[in-house]
Write a structure and sequence with these properties.
six-stranded mixed β-sheet; 3 domains; alpha/beta; D-Maltodextrin-Binding Protein, domain 2; Arc Repressor Mutant, subunit A; elongated
């Protein structure tokens, strides 16, 4: 069948014989045996080559598909039987990298000695950029919007909170923290937020627009430490998750956190990889290690407000 496909594509037995590195007579016999089994002519032989008969045109469509599928199956099988090797580039957000990258690297060094793992650490926007430019093979990032060339599997969901100063600092600044924050509260509270395309800012803006609210943003900065310092001084409030970044402050000033009334105020941590790498056995093996270590990390209770998304819920959570 594959011989017929090559002859049909080349339009000539002689050119197809060169392509396949076999004698033209042997190639002609293969095609004639196929025609004999099918009971019909597939090619019309002419002085300057061959053309497909009507039956040949119909048969070629199915034959090409079967040849392609067989070649793909052979490539996949070859990948799985070979020892993983080569470079695999991992990209993690900063707040996850310090905890997840070390155990992943340790296991890769022990279990995959021929795989060189390179870790990239950055902001969610930076991780998105590495993926889009083909500079990362596998990543974990928040609420990715990357298009159909990538596979995205939601892994964990984490609620966002309104983070503000303690009661005394808030009182001196002339505002108070609500026990439960609504979208309407964001129209009056002094908000200190990062700029777009920071994922927190994108989430806040989208949900506020959906509820007909214009957030009262008094200052924009992408510096996490700057935002935290301004919140400590009572200059305003921000939106973030409850984690080590906000649990302690350099000055010892107390901070307050209020949950949102809407469950939509959250972000999702996702595994992301390019579809083009699906047959790469090294990337596949490293992904298994990353997923296993990530699950161990989250099950340790380090982030108490984070919930792992079960596989049966992943499609609805994406």
């Amino acid at each position: 069948m594959s011989a017929f496909v090559v002859v049909a594509r080349m339009g000539s037995f002689s050119r197809a014989a060169v392509e396949l590195c076999i004698a033209q007579s042997a190639l002609s016999k293969r095609v004639r045996r196929l025609e004999s089994r099918l009971g019909t002519a597939l090619l019309e032989r002419r002085a300057r080559g061959v053309v497909l008969t009507e039956a040949g045109q119909v048969f070629l469509v199915r034959a090409q598909r079967l040849v392609d599928e067989t070649a793909d199956l052979e490539r996949n099988l070859s990948n799985y039987v070979h020892t993983p090797s080569g470079e695999v580039r991992l990209a993690f957000p900063q707040r996850t990298c310090g905890l997840l990258a070390p155990p992943v690297i340790e296991r890769c060094l022990k279990e995959l000695p021929l795989v060189a793992v390179q870790v990239l650490e950055g902001t969610p926007a930076g991780v998105h950029g590495w993926l889009l430019r083909g500079e990362a093979d596998l990543a974990m990032t928040y609420n990715p919007e990357l298009g159909t060339d990538f596979l995205v599997r939601p892994f964990a969901v984490e609620p966002l909170f309104l983070i503000g100063p303690g009661p005394a600092a808030a009182g001196r600044a002339g505002f108070s923290m609500p026990e439960v924050c609504s979208f309407q509260d964001l129209a009056t509270l002094p908000l200190i937020l990062p700029k777009k395309p920071n994922i927190v800012r994108v989430i806040v803006d989208r949900l506020c627009v959906g509820h007909g609210v214009r957030p009262n943003v008094i200052y924009e900065t992408d510096g996490t430490q700057t935002i935290r310092g301004m919140v400590e001084r009572g200059m305003g409030v921000t939106v973030f998750t409850l984690n080590s970044t906000w649990s302690e402050t350099p000055t010892g000033a107390p901070l307050a956190a209020s949950p949102f009334s809407s469950p939509l105020m959250n972000w999702k941590l996702c595994f992301v990889r390019a579809r083009a790498s699906l047959n790469n056995v090294a990337v596949n093996r490293v992904q298994q290690i990353v997923e296993q270590e990530a699950e161990l990390l989250f099950n340790s209770g380090l982030w108490k407000t984070t919930r792992i998304i079960e596989p049966q819920d992943a499609s609805g959570a994406a």
